TrEMBL record:
<dbReference type="InterPro" id="IPR009057">
    <property type="entry name" value="Homeodomain-like_sf"/>
</dbReference>
<dbReference type="Pfam" id="PF21943">
    <property type="entry name" value="TetR_C_46"/>
</dbReference>
<keyword id="KW-0805">Transcription regulation</keyword>
<keyword id="KW-0238">DNA-binding</keyword>
<protein>
    <submittedName>
        <fullName>TetR/AcrR family transcriptional regulator</fullName>
    </submittedName>
</protein>
<feature type="domain" description="HTH tetR-type">
    <location>
        <begin position="12"/>
        <end position="72"/>
    </location>
</feature>
<dbReference type="InterPro" id="IPR054129">
    <property type="entry name" value="DesT_TetR_C"/>
</dbReference>
<dbReference type="GO" id="GO:0003700">
    <property type="term" value="F:DNA-binding transcription factor activity"/>
</dbReference>
<dbReference type="InterPro" id="IPR001647">
    <property type="entry name" value="HTH_TetR"/>
</dbReference>
<keyword id="KW-0804">Transcription</keyword>
<dbReference type="Pfam" id="PF00440">
    <property type="entry name" value="TetR_N"/>
</dbReference>
<feature type="DNA-binding region" description="H-T-H motif">
    <location>
        <begin position="35"/>
        <end position="54"/>
    </location>
</feature>
<dbReference type="InterPro" id="IPR036271">
    <property type="entry name" value="Tet_transcr_reg_TetR-rel_C_sf"/>
</dbReference>
<dbReference type="InterPro" id="IPR050109">
    <property type="entry name" value="HTH-type_TetR-like_transc_reg"/>
</dbReference>
<dbReference type="GO" id="GO:0000976">
    <property type="term" value="F:transcription cis-regulatory region binding"/>
</dbReference>
């Protein structure tokens, strides 16, 4: 009976089961320690079927990275209401980011830890995702600058640098929040909002911090 059910199950459903099992295994065990036998057993299929659908372990890991990256980017984009003021947009984007990473800890581990620590071709997949999020955040910060000034005071290079810094901080904080019991997505988002927004708001209103003049 089991074999008949396996044949009747749509390929897309069966493949999603395998991918879910792979993300869980890679996220919890790590890329090198994870085995195709473990993934097949967790998915309830034979190992040859995993190879038939998803090919090699490297291909499977790359597919997991792409799937989890696409889901994260979509969650952040969907979480931002463009009708909100600048701080509201940033807050809603951060909440969406931390909510997604908290609800998908294995997927975040794949993206943030495993993919980055095993070189190419995996790291290139993560770079694509990160570039998309940085570009999105750059747009939010740029919009905030335009909201504060008819003639934006922030140069494109400054906006890009702030976006890189904010995304980097969010990535690190998400890893910490997932490893620290009791830290909610809302709390993590509020922590970063409090850290970032005061400085951003000062910049938007032409009140940047200046380093002390070098006496020499």
């Amino acid at each position: 009976m089991g074999a008949v059910k396996s044949k009747r199950m749509p390929r897309a459903v069966r493949e999603r089961q395998m991918m879910d099992a792979a993300v869980q295994t890679f996220g919890q065990r790590g890329y090198r320690a994870a085995s195709m036998d473990e993934i097949a057993e967790l998915a309830g299929v034979s190992k040859p079927l995993v190879y038939l659908y998803l090919h090699s372990k490297e291909d499977l890991f790359s597919a997991c990275i792409r799937r989890e990256a696409e889901a994260l980017v979509e969650a952040v984009r969907a979480g931002v209401d463009p009708e909100l003021p600048a701080d509201g947009q940033l807050w809603s984007g951060l909440r969406a980011f931390f909510t997604h990473t908290a609800e998908n800890p294995d997927g975040w581990a794949v993206l943030h830890r495993q993919a980055r620590s095993h070189g190419e071709p995996f790291i290139s997949e993560v770079v694509v995702m990160r570039d998309e999020i940085v570009a999105f955040v750059t747009g939010l910060i740029g919009a905030a600058a335009r909201e504060a000034h008819r003639d934006p005071a922030l140069a494109d290079r400054d906006v890009a640098g702030l976006a890189q810094a904010l995304v980097g901080a969010a990535e690190s904080l998400a890893g910490w929040a997932n490893d620290t019991p009791g830290v909610s997505a809302k709390e993590a988002a509020a922590t970063l909002m409090n850290f970032a927004w005061a400085g951003l708001e000062n910049l938007m209103h032409a009140r940047p911090w200046q380093p002390p003049v070098d006496a020499t």
